[in-house]
Amino acid sequence: MPVDETKRRALLDAIVETISAHAEELTEIDAAQGDGDHGLNMKRGFTAVMSKREAIVAKPLPEAMQEVGRTLVMTVGGASGVIFGTAFMAAGKALPEDPTRADAAAAMDAAVAAVRARGKADFGHKTMLDVLGPVAKALRDPAADIAAAALAAAEATAGMQAIRGRASFLAERSVGGMDAGARSAALIIVAICSAMGDRA
Amino acid sequence: MKKLINVPESVLAESLDGFAAAHSDLVTLGEERKFVRRARLTPGKVALVSGGGSGHEPLHAGFVGHGMLDAACPGQVFTSPTPDQMMAAAEAVDGGAGILFIVKNYEGDVMNFDMAREMETGRTTEAVLVDDDVAVEVSTFSNGRRGVAGTVVVEKIVGAAAERGDDLAACRALGERVNKATRSMGVALTSCTVPAAGKPTFQLADDEIEIGVGIHGEPGRRRAKHSNADTLAQDMVTAILDDLAGSGSAPGSALLLVNGFGGTPLMELYVMYHAARAQMEARGVTVVRSLVGNYVTSLDMAGCSLTVTALDTEMAALWDATVHTPALRWGI
User: Fold this and answer.
1) Are B23 and B98 part of one and the same domain?
2) Contacts of A79 in chain B (CB under 8 A)
3) Is B274 a catalytic residue?
4) Which residue range(s) make up the domain with B214?
5) Residue in B9, B106, B107 to test binding to A, most A beta-carbons within 10 Å
6) What are B319-329's pLDDT values in tens digits?
7) What is the predicted ipTM?
8) Which of A1, A45, A111, B145 is placed for a possible disulfide with B131 were both Cys, Cβ 3.0 to 4.6 Å?
9) A166 vs B84, B112, B218: nearest CB
10) Are residues B144 and B101 in the same domain?
11) Distance (Å) of CA A200 to CA A60, A195, B265
């Protein structure tokens, strides 16, 4: 059964709600590592997404996700706009209208590949990839709790030294705090899981 | 936070509107404030488009005008602009000879300009990446050097070349040549405060400085006790000239730019200029061109950067060529 419009609206609302609710927390995480604007930037992007909410949710899931991605690219700015936008666009392109757990895993792989290429980043560089990678893995394990895997993966970035992103200028001083982009990615995954609950 | 603003959300829009009104003889603000472009374009000329996060004024919009940029895209404070801004700017100033994007080497800027270039269809674009900051040690595990105040030198010299009729490939090659001959290093005496954050980006004790600071207050080489202008100038000139020498660009004649970060008086910038020039001459480098002032700022950060460009005859002549922009004008 395709993900219908009601479900698509619930998905979008859940993502926007979590980013909005955690904007200050994201900004604080970023202040310790980068320049302290991640929460604000993400909020600006998803506010723009919400201004086209009905047009977006009217589209089938793959197109709707790509439209969310394009909107983020065009409104957030900085590295996060391009990276989060690219992740949504690549995942949307790879998804069928009625995704199974295996389809979701394939879409996550597509997002990982696109983000790696765009950001010239890899796993262990203390970026959102360190959440997307473990989530793709969890999606392939029928027993795995995806939301929990995402949150734990974001927490684990605290122990990493940043190789990419503005935190990389801190070098060894970047160890100890979570990566803001990884935390955002985890929050979005958790929101998707809760909205898709019955299909996971 | 004590700033001459109304609310953080409107700082950028109000500042751009003020800028465009103050310099309406030279520049025009694009639709939805996506870009600032020259009021009068020259058909058939390579168009130079730059852009980056706001908070570095006068970079980049202050350098839009005859002899420098054709358009500049202002992002949010310390956040790179988006691909649609760059595409709109390119469309607005395309004179039929191609677009040269001048990009500072920061991940956000690089990714957004890359994306804009990929999405541009039917327009010829090239890009010059500026990465002049010697404070960042180059390694395979970093993003490479940051693009900082040397950007002004690249924009000025390439802008003059475009004005005299150089084609796109020549402008790009010249941009790369100027970048290779240019090194910068900065020092912060205080943090800056991003309006939306409302508090200082980092903490420095009264007697501490951040050596090698980037233009958003991001860390550099090390934190140190503050000494004095002569000692700092010596450290910075040494790092810059050693690096230039190490890459085979040891200058005989040079341009010296002392750039204020926004919170340091001109009087002190001239003290730094005096000290840096003496250091350079002690190492056998003749300073033949100079620029002192606030050109690539970091909001209200106190401190400065030194930029040295090893000048050849052609680059010196292009530096001297007429420029008429809000922030740089001579020869008119």
Assistant:
1) yes
2) 80, 107-108, 111
3) no
4) 182-318
5) B107
6) 999 999 999 99
7) 0.89
8) B145
9) B218
10) yes
11) 19, 10, 61
